[in-house]
Write a structure and sequence with these properties.
This protein is α/β, with parallel strands linked by helices. It is built from seven helices and six strands; from the N terminus they run ααβαβαβαβαββα. Strands 3-2-1-4-5-6 form a six-stranded parallel β-sheet, sandwiched between helices.
Length: 246
């Protein structure tokens, strides 16, 4: 038709080089800014205000819907992930929650509820979970109180939970981007994928938690059901190096 077309470069070749040979030819630019570059010919410019997420009033979660223990403030931890290699193992989730050391709301889908219950029960010192304590630190159960909200809220309601939280911990998931849109401080946890792919939190304060001391990472641009090497050290040996002001 003779109409000029513009397309988005998904950088599949550059990602392939990074995954297979650890050769970094990726541009140092967020994927959102690359999306905007595709529309530059239309005169569309970045307003530099970050992402937007609008929550319908009908989906705002009333304070009384969450436990009294969390109504004075809480941290949100989105424990889900599209692939297993993008999620912390449950034992490491427990370690992370202990370090956070304050009331936490766990967010995720119905498929994440069982793992959320393991975390919650641990901090209630349920005897049935005693075997989970092996290998964990000795100093536990301080101020960590878990509310397992996985599968209890729709996406907009989950965003409402995020909006009210003081900090957000999340794997490489959609909740991470919702938190960024709501201008929350994000602690972003990365396993087999890497922020260099350009999908880190956009225009909000954030901390990246990742293990950069592996020659096998990234092993995929998406993820796997289990670690291809069998050790899962990108998550098993990640250091939770962060500080939360009171």
């Amino acid at each position: 038709l003779g109409v000029k077309a513009h397309s988005f470069n998904k950088l599949n070749w550059e990602k392939w080089l990074m995954v297979n040979f650890k050769i970094n030819k990726l541009p140092s630019i967020h994927i959102f800014d690359r999306y905007l570059q595709t529309t530059a010919h239309l005169g569309i410019k970045n307003d530099s205000l970050g992402l937007d997420y609008f929550i319908p009033e009908s989906d705002e979660v009333p304070l009384e819907w969450i436990p009294v223990t969390h109504q004075m403030g809480y941290v949100t931890y989105a424990i889900g992930g599209q692939h297993a290699t993008k999620k912390l193992p449950v034992k490491r989730m427990i370690e992370l929650c202990d370090k956070i050391n304050r009331p936490i709301i766990l967010l995720g889908g119905k498929e994440d509820f069982a793992e959320g219950e393991q975390v919650r029960l641990f901090f209630e010192r349920n005897e049935a979970e005693a075997e989970m304590e092996a290998g964990l630190t000795d100093v536990l159960n301080k101020r960590t109180i878990i509310y397992n909200a996985c599968g209890k809220y729709n996406l907009n309601q989950s965003a409402s939970i995020v909006k009210r939280s003081t900090y957000v911990f999340t794997h490489d998931t959609g909740v991470m981007h919702i938190a960024a849109a709501l201008k929350k401080e994000v602690f972003s946890i990365w396993g087999n994928t890497i922020p260099l792919f350009g999908m880190y939190p956009y225009r909000t304060k954030f901390t990246i938690l990742e293990n950069n001391k592996l020659d096998c990472r990234p092993c995929s641009k998406i993820g796997y059901k289990k670690c291809p090497k069998g050790h899962f050290n990108c998550m098993q040996k990640i250091i939770f190096d962060f500080y939360l002001p009171e």
